[in-house]
Amino acid sequence: MDSIAELRSRLRGFAEARDWGRFHTPKNLAMALGGEAGELIAELQWLDDTAVADGLANGELTGRLADEAADVLLYLVQFAEATGIDLVRAAHDKIDRNESRYPVHLAHGNATKSTEL
To answer: 4-85: CATH homologous superfamily?
Structure first.
């Protein structure tokens, strides 16, 4: 399965088989998404960049990060479904806006906020 649509369909079937739809309100899904993002952050908390790189290189950290990133993605896909958001379209629209907010000639090589460029 490679597409968001296939993932969304599989998730829908998973939740329907368990009668969880009534719990999947936008508010509940947003809260769950935030919690899972926190769990992803917790895996990296207090590690310096070298420890992260080493943990990724030896695989020690990769599995845990993959699990937490998958949880974030799954809740995001469910949130988008519950709110009628086309994630791919929204992402392209956001990149379009960011291209005008962060023109290459001003933003190249720095992390300055768009309002300060």
So the answer is: MazG-like (1.10.287.1080)
